[in-house]
Amino acid sequence: MKPDLAAWICAAGLALIAGASARADLALGMVERTGCAYCVMWNREIAPIWPKTREGRTAPLRRIDLDAKLPEDVRLVSRPQFTPTFVLLRDGVEIGRLEGYPGEDFFWGLIGAMVQGQPEWAQTDEGE
Asked: Which region is the signal sequence (predicted)?
């Protein structure tokens, strides 16, 4: 193999690796508390299917305990006061919020609007 071709292949590989690591990390943070009745409801109605949905594949769930110290890699606009509070996180930084669990029907519409507005939505497959 010619040295120029080898150098080009190496550079292309490095560019692919850099592009993959530069992709933002989108997650749905669920701020919850032990004993929260609405958290229990969400865990029963939504949690089992969340990872199977396009929304869940676009923004995987990240649980955050309201009573614990906030993880160091999470930056919120303000400390949540209610549980559950759902926070859309890009690289750990809050970009959207839904306070409370309004029930299954309203939850999907409200969370869907937040997640579907993100560039990752177009990159996630539709198959459920």
From this structure: 1-22
